[in-house]
């Protein structure tokens, strides 16, 4: 592997991308870093947060600075797989069927309120996310490259929703929890609001909808610079072992001896992370090291990346819900069980 010692060009690309996104998004550094991580790693993102926190705006802005083709799909209970992937249309003149491709044939897909779609639609999206292709009729069609799914779900509404199956959740590289802005950030949001005389309604997050277009700071060439820099990030063998140990520690079946079974933190976990989680943690930790401007991965990078990597992959038991524990709390306890190198 060709070694790249100078991270300067990659850090300059990241700084320019953050500056462009800051023109539309106030605060939300964790969300922005997660979106950039997915873009570099070529993975998918699940965004969870109440309405009005600029989830949709952030995804649109990311697509704008990359110059990629963007499509937004509003998921509803009556959505059909053909509404997502496309269908066969009878052409009377040609006496045959032609393919009409659906909105999933784009580079960046915003799956808005993904948990409102029934199982058939979710299975169609699962094929697109994993195989990077969709099947229409008897033929499979490749999706454009790159292909990213950025899905949102509202945690406070459960009526008319369908829980995502674990097989689909595992295909998301990260799950990001979008928090309320800090008071000083919310004050800045008020300053962004358009004047009444303009007749323009504020957009998501309180920020005006119009404005100058964002510069394409993350085009194909810039993305290549970032990926080359990530490939040069050194990961010590002991840190690799630490990554594997963290994921292994999330699996209850690994517990032996007196604390096995329903004792300790493992009584709150039904199923842990798979090897796909190990790969996601490995890739995310290297990208986080790049964000910090370091040419090596530290154990702290692994610990920080563990939360978004694992929070949607752990299946918690009923005891966790009864005791009021969420996935982040359980993951934090797991990290205390694994000694850092």
How would you characterize this protein structure?
The chain has 341 residues and is α/β, with parallel strands linked by helices. It is 41% helix and 15% strand. The chain has helices spanning 8-21, 29-41, 55-66, 81-85, 119-131, 166-169, 183-192, 220-231, 237-249, 275-291, 299-310, 318-322, 327-337, and strands at residues 44-48, 70-74, 86-91, 96-101, 108-112, 133-136, 139-142, 148-153, 172-177, 269-271, 315-316. The chain has a 5-stranded parallel beta sheet. It has a two-stranded antiparallel ribbon with strand order 3-4. A two-stranded antiparallel ribbon has the order 6-7. It is globular, with a radius of gyration of 21 Å. 37% of the residues are buried.
User: CATH H-level name of the largest domain... which superfamily?
Assistant: P-loop containing nucleotide triphosphate hydrolases
Overall average pLDDT: 84
Our measurement of the CA-to-CA distance between the termini, rounded to an integer number of angstroms, reads 25 Å
Give the tally of structural domains: 2
Helix content: 40-55%
Any idea what the radius of gyration is? 21 Å
Q: How much of the residues is beta strand, in percent?
A: 15-25%
Task: Produce the secondary structure layout.
Layout: H1 8-21, H2 29-41, E1 44-48, H3 55-66, E2 70-74, H4 81-85, E3 86-91, E4 96-101, E5 108-112, H5 119-131, E6 133-136, E7 139-142, E8 148-153, H6 166-169, E9 172-177, H7 183-192, H8 220-231, H9 237-249, E10 269-271, H10 275-291, H11 299-310, E11 315-316, H12 318-322, H13 327-337
Parallel strand pairs: 1-8, 1-9, 2-5, 5-8
Antiparallel strand pairs: 3-4, 6-7, 10-11
Helix pairs in contact: 1-8, 2-3, 2-10, 9-10, 9-11, 10-11, 11-13
